[in-house]
Design goal:
about 375 residues, alpha/beta, TIM Barrel, about 10% strand, disordered N terminus, GH, Beta-glucan_modifiers, Cell wall glucanase (Scw4), putative, hydrolase, glucan endo-1,3-beta-D-glucosidase activity
């Protein structure tokens, strides 16, 4: 889901802990009915992480298909210098006139089922349906999505968690952010950005090493600060990668981790929130107490069962309720996955034929 699945080695499995009293308050009025697990034995999880499913377009300004253009040589980072891990991270920007939202974030991809780009009107229509969220996460700069999504978000006083999907054309790819929010008078309005992410699961997918990614984050911070952006800069990866590579947290302004209980065959939807919250706490502990945001978490409503983790509409509803309950006291630290079904995606052996069906607000 524009990311690699957080598949677990046996050594990575972490036992759940009971949520504290504050987390026992339901965000919804009533827990939805659950679909009971089948008697089918859990699917064994291989001892590997699966590469991310790339968006249909490579992050280039001309929007050439990822299979149809030649990528430039990858960015070669220099030796990593450790930042000051004790400095206070910058807070996300906020609009002074922002109306009350749910405070949760939600992820979004601006692609049609035939893998073509949505235009401004179509993106506007999509965000009209999800304006109750405080911010929206997007993954790349292809399809001119930084511009179309920020334009649509302003209509609802939402912020945008933007990013570059990988290090193709890095650091030149960073110019897209400022260009997308430049006003007619030439002034850049950086305040629309909640966060800028440098890569999505690059280490988990085997695309780059942790050292390469950490150095790229440092480079991005230098470039973006010089351009006038003062908000958070992070790299997003799976929770297991963050536990194994705390340097990714150290170089980011906060830890940004994707975490889905569905890919643990022992998990039930009603425990999805406690599961994600536990991983967030583990990452923070590993990173010396640094704040952790869960940048993806959800549950599919269709597909094949992963042991006791079963896709269904009822189970998705229960999982989302659980996530909202567990993060009710820290809503700004949860991005729900995902706004709408992503019918442009393909399934593989690790996605349980559920890749297209994680949309919380239905299909398009």
């Amino acid at each position: 889901m524009l990311r690699a699945w957080a598949l677990h080695n046996k050594s990575m499995l972490v036992h759940r802990t009971l949520p504290d009293e504050e987390e026992k308050r339901w965000f919804l009025l009533k827990e939805p009915a659950l679909t009971l697990p089948s008697k089918k034995p859990p699917t064994p999880i291989p001892d590997l992480n699966v590469p991310s499913i790339a968006p249909p377009y490579a992050p280039s300004k001309n929007n050439n298909d990822v299979n149809g253009h030649s990528n430039p040589a990858p960015y070669k980072p220099k030796e990593l210098q450790h930042p000051n891990t004790h400095s206070k991270p910058p807070a996300p920007h906020s609009h002074s006139d922002q109306h009350p939202h749910s405070q949760f974030g939600i992820s979004y991809s601006p692609y049609k089922a035939d893998r073509t780009c949505k235009n401004q009107e179509e993106v506007n229509d999509d965000l009209d349906r999800i304006s109750q969220y405080s911010f929206i996460r997007i993954y790349g700069t292809d399809c001119d999505q930084t511009r179309t999504v920020t334009n649509a978000a302003r209509r609802h006083n939402m912020l945008v968690f933007a990013g570059i999907y990988d290090l193709t054309d890095f650091p030149k790819s960073l110019d897209t952010f400022g260009e997308s929010v430049t006003n007619p008078d030439g002034k850049i309005d950086w305040s629309i950005f909640h966060t800028i992410a440098i890569g999505n699961e690059l280490v988990n997918g085997g695309t780059n090493s942790a050292a390469d990614v950490a150095t790229a984050v440092q480079k991005a911070r230098s470039v973006l600060r010089a351009q006038g952006y003062t908000g958070p800069i992070v790299t997003v990866d799976t929770f297991s990668v963050h536990l194994n590579h705390p340097e990714l947290c150290h170089v980011s302004d906060y830890c940004a981790a994707n975490c889905h209980a569905f890919f643990d065959a022992t998990q039930q939807p009603a425990g999805a929130g406690a599961y994600a919250l536990e991983q967030a706490r583990s990452i923070s502990a590993r990173a010396g107490g640094k704040r952790t945001m869960i940048t993806e978490s959800g549950w599919p409503h269709a597909g094949d069962a992963n042991g006791g983790a079963i896709p269904s509409a009822d189970n998705q509803q229960a999982a989302i309720a659980s996530l909202k309950k567990s993060f009710d006291h820290r809503r700004e630290d949860l991005v729900l996955f995902t706004a709408f079904d992503d019918l442009w995606k393909d399934d593989n052996m690790y996605t349980f034929n559920a890749e297209k069906f994680w949309g919380i607000h239905g299909g398009l």
